[in-house]
Specification:
GTPase that plays an essential role in the late steps of ribosome biogenesis. It comes from Secundilactobacillus similis DSM 23365 = JCM 2765. Associates with the 50S ribosomal subunit. The relative contact order is 0.09. It is globular, with a radius of gyration of 24 Å. By secondary structure, it is of the alpha/beta class. The protein has twelve helices and 18 strands. The strands form four sheets. A seven-stranded mixed beta sheet has the order 8-9-10-7-11-12-13, sandwiched between helices. The chain has a six-stranded mixed beta sheet with strand order 2-3-1-4-5-6, with helices on both faces. A three-stranded mixed beta sheet has the order 16-17-18, covered by helices on one side. α2 packs parallel to α3, α7 runs parallel beside α8 and α11 packs across α12. The two termini are about 35 Å apart. The protein folds into three domains: about 160 residues, P-loop containing nucleotide triphosphate hydrolases (Rossmann fold, 3-Layer(aba) Sandwich), CATH 3.40.50; about 180 residues, Rossmann fold, CATH 3.40.50.300; about 80 residues, K homology (KH) domain (GMP Synthetase, Chain A, domain 3, 2-Layer Sandwich), CATH 3.30.300.20. The protein binds guanosine-5'-diphosphate (2 copies). The site of one guanosine-5'-diphosphate has 16 residues, from α1.
């Protein structure tokens, strides 16, 4: 999925434009309280092309002086984006800060589309010609708050997306390691890529820093570790900020089939862990909970059990995710990881036969009758699997409103008891039978 980054000095309207293009995707992740600028990473779609979108204005590094902040935001755009939307404001004309941003963007080897915002009416649109002086070709007049001109802008952006035709599709298992700084992601990468594994290649992605690493395990199964370079490096100031690392994690999740959600056994669970885990769950990815630094704990025969209970309580919606307790330092249980990733990837794209599925559903209903709401009983006629990654089932019923959440969960549990869907969320959709 190509990435667009919105960049520009403060108050030109970046977050207004971001929210316009984003549309409305409400989620448990984005509802998390205490996030000032509510979100900086999302998806958008224009005429059938989907993309991810970053509001670099939301990456602020605290007390840095103004010019340093906008420099860093422009650098994030250069690092992360396939196409950069450089926003200026027709109300103020070309300012020194705009020129500063332009200078940084000249050095980027990335397409830049210039958006002149706050062009709310036709008269003011005459004034966009001054912006040719910034040197990014045609300025696109838009109004973020009125939603004007965004179509033409997005047409230009999509035209500038890199050509993907030449890239060979492969069917290796794509996975990423996600977790807070210091949980041991880089150490796990190094341990997983250790001597006994053949590294096939580093694949340069469409963006400079997104480097995927391919390897083959003992059984010949091929894996692609997504954004390995992003895990390994840590230098620039913004790379240490929480919002940047959350954004980076969301991007990696979007590009993976299976997510290894890494926790630090020594430190337990934090709010940031919950945000990324919630995002991976909602994105419908396969998930494995990896508890790292298991060597660092003093243990008795209860420790593992207690730790598991604690994690299960904190992440109830991840009940389907297997947990593995490892050490990047001693390599404890690391050998089991590739096979586990493979199992989860297989379950994530598993298809079950309609006949067997319907036997399971009908038996489930016989054992535990459907709910009765105000004298009306839910009737279930037929179920069928309509998609994989994640497995998605449509259940045809007399009235979808009669399907209670708890009964849907009962059906999900029955499906899970009969088919192995370890590690993958499954989606159930009710449809009224015509
Ligand atoms: P950011 O700092 O670049 O993210 O800018 P914001 O999106 O927070 O917008 C800064 C201010 O400009 C807010 O008061 C917005 O309401 C206003 N604004 C944003 N877009 C437009 C626009 O198209 N026209 C006008 N007149 N005001 C806008
Ligand atoms: P990242 O920020 O998630 O990539 O974490 P790193 O891989 O950089 O590891 C952070 C620190 O934890 C480093 O000092 C590592 O040596 C240490 N560390 C990583 N894995 C383990 C482990 O399994 N056991 C112990 N005891 N320390 C570890």
């Amino acid at each position: 999925m190509p990435t667009i980054a919105i960049v520009g000095r403060p108050n030109v309207g970046k977050s207004t434009i971001f929210n316009r293009i984003a549309g409305d995707r409400i989620s448990i992740v984005e509802d998390t309280p205490g996030v000032t600028r509510d979100r900086i990473y999302t998806h958008g779609e224009w005429l059938g092309t989907t993309f991810s979108l970053i509001d670099t204005g939301g990456i602020d590094v605290g007390d840095e002086p103004f010019l340093k902040q906008i420099t860093q935001q422009a650098e994030v755009a250069i690092d992360e984006a396939d196409v950069i939307v450089f926003v200026v404001s027709v109300r103020e004309g070309v300012t020194d800060a705009d020129e500063k941003v332009a200078q940084i963007l000249y050095k980027a080897n990335k397409p830049v589309v210039l958006a002149v915002n706050k062009a709310d009416n036709p008269e003011i649109r005459q004034e966009i010609y001054d912006f040719y002086s910034l040197g990014f070709g045609d300025p696109y007049p838009i109004s973020g708050s009125h939603g004007l001109g965004l179509g033409d802008l997005l047409d230009a952006v999509i035209k500038a997306f890199p050509d993907k035709d030449g890239e060979a599709e492969d069917d290796s298992i794509r996975f990423s390691l996600i977790g807070r700084p210091n949980v041991g992601k880089s150490s796990l990468v190094n341990a997983l890529l250790g001597e006994d594994r053949v590294i096939v290649s580093d694949i340069a992605g469409t963006t400079r820093d997104a480097i995927d690493t391919k390897f083959v395990d003992e059984t010949g199964a091929e894996f692609t570790m997504v954004d390995t370079a992003g895990i390994r490096k840590r230098g620039k100031v913004y790379e240490n900020t929480e919002r940047y690392s959350v954004m980076r994690a969301m991007k990696a999740i979007d590009n993976s089939d299976v997510v290894l959600f890494v926790l630090n056994a020594e430190e337990g669970i934090r709010e940031q862990d919950k945000r990324v885990a919630g995002y991976a769950h909602e994105a419908g990815r396969g998930i494995i909970i990896v508890v790292n630094k298991w060597d660092a704990l003093k243990k008795n025969n209860q420790t593992l059990h207690d730790f598991e209970i604690h994690v299960r309580e904190e992440f109830q919606y991840l009940a389907y995710a297997p947990m593995i307790f490892v050490s990047a330092k001693t390599h404890q249980r690391l050998g089991e990881l590739p096979a586990l990733i493979k199992t989860v990837a297989t379950n994530h794209e598993k298809r079950v036969q309609s006949a067997t599925l319907n036997d399971v559903i009908m038996d489930a209903i016989a054992m535990n009758p459907t709910p009765n709401v105000n004298g009306k009983r839910l009737r279930v006629y037929y179920a069928t699997q309509v998609a994989v990654q994640p497995p998605t089932f449509v259940v045809f019923v007399n009235d979808p409103d009669l399907m209670h959440f708890s009964y849907e969960r009962y059906l999900e549990n029955q499906i899970r008891e009969h088919f192995d869907f370890t590690g993958t969320p499954i989606h159930i959709i009710e449809r009224r039978r015509k």
